[in-house]
Amino acid sequence: MHLTGSGRSKDIQKAANYLKSSADQDYGAACFFYAYLLMGGTEAEESQNSNSNSSQETNEDRFARTGQKAFEYLSKGSELGNPACQCAYGIALFQGENIKPDKRKGVELIKKSCNRSYPRALNFYGNLLAKGVTVFEQSASDNDFQTSYPVTLIEKDEKAAADMFAEAASQFDAEGCYNYGVALLNGKGVKKDTRKALVFIQKSANLGFAEAICDYASFYEKGIEVKKDIQKAASLYKQAADLGCQSAAVHYGQMCMDGIGVKKDVQEAAKYFKLAMKK
After folding, report:
1. 3-state DSSP assignment of residue 261
2. Which of 15, 19, 50, 214 could form a disulfide with 248 if both were Cys (CB 3.0 to 4.6 A apart)?
3. Whole-angstrom Cα distance, residue 164 to residue 52?
4. Which of 30, 26, 32, 7 lies closest to 17 in space, CA to CA?
5. Strand ranges (E), 126-233
6. What angle separates helix 194-206 from helix 174-186, to the nearest 10 degrees?
7. CA distance linking residue 217 with residue 213, whole number of Å
8. Residue 266 pLDDT more than 60?
9. How many CA atoms lie within 13 A of 42 on its CB side?
10. Is 262 helix (H, G, I), strand (E, B) or coil?
């Protein structure tokens, strides 16, 4: 296990060589992990590009080279039916980040991944269903001038979205548990059930999902379905903030500023307010 260092010394380049070899032999999972290494800007391609003067490359040049190759392997893995590749490549096409956007193809691939019950795809597509998606497509008019017109790519369907989240949650997926808990909390696509919502949000929080930890803190801050405990709320907000949740950073910063649940500390408050402004 050269990639994780399990059982032997960690060696990213050697892991990349093995993964590339396996991917080139049409193993879908290897396509995903090799693409993952390429996207991460690791040494993945160095042994394959020994003639390139990588020391003079900018980060942008490096990503343009390795990122394009990564998408090629994600595309290949998608064609081989690997749900992780279908999800990752589908999302990339849908969002159009570092690749020419193709929302229709992106959605098609994400749905295929959903059909294999891949949690990330279930969550992503569920969020699209919860809001609906409209795109603008080009049409050539009679005088050859292109005009744009709106097309509904995904009909809004909150019940279908909640079902997607529930399926992901059934696999103990942290994001799925959170999304399903929020659906239950707000009564979106499913009957409102605050107690059940707390159960799923707590499950997600226990799995380390930052947004869930933040929402879990709010239950204690407000005394919803649990005994009100401001100190525990503050501790949970800090935990979520340290994991990168901006909303939690705001809450914890304000608590530090006002001395609620924690000792008043203006410097600590400023630290977390600053953290909340980071993208």
Report:
1. coil
2. 214
3. 45
4. 30
5. 133-140, 146-154
6. 160
7. 6
8. yes
9. 18
10. coil
Nearest-angstrom CA–CA distance, 95 and 97: 6
The residue among 108, 114, 90, 218 whose CA lies nearest residue 166 is 114
Distance separating alpha carbons of residues 35 and 19, to the nearest angstrom = 9
Give which of 73, 80, 12, 9 is closest to 42, Cα–Cα: 12
Residue 231, token pair as written in the block: 């100190």
Q: For 150-166, how does the pLDDT look when each residue is reduced to its tens digit (9 = 90+)?
A: 999 999 999 999 999 99
CB 169 within 8 A of CB 206: no
> From residue 41, how far is each of 28, 92, 131 by CA, in Å?
21, 17, 34
Q: Could you tell me the two tokens for 50? A: 């020994």
Strand partners, 151: 135
Task: Report the alpha-carbon distance of residue 175 to residue 208 in Å, rounded.
Answer: 10
* Cβ atoms of residues 72 and 88 within 8 Å: no
CB 216 within 8 A of CB 233: no
Task: Say if CB 58 and CB 44 are below 8 A apart.
Answer: no
pTM above 0.70, yes or no: yes
Mean pLDDT of 39-53: 52
Other Cβ atoms less than 10 A from the Cβ of 242: the count is: 15
The string of pLDDT tens digits covering residues 117-130 is 999 999 999 999 99
Amino acid identity of 171? Q
Judged against a pLDDT cut of 50, whether residue 5 lies above it is answered with: no
Q: Which secondary-structure segment (H or E) carries 168?
A: helix 158-169
Closest by CA to 70, choosing from 33, 38, 24, is 38
Asked whether 217 and 241 are in contact (CB, 8 A), the reply is: no
Tell me which residue has tokens 């107690």: 195
Cα 162 from chain centre: 17
Is pLDDT above 70 for 93?
Answer: yes
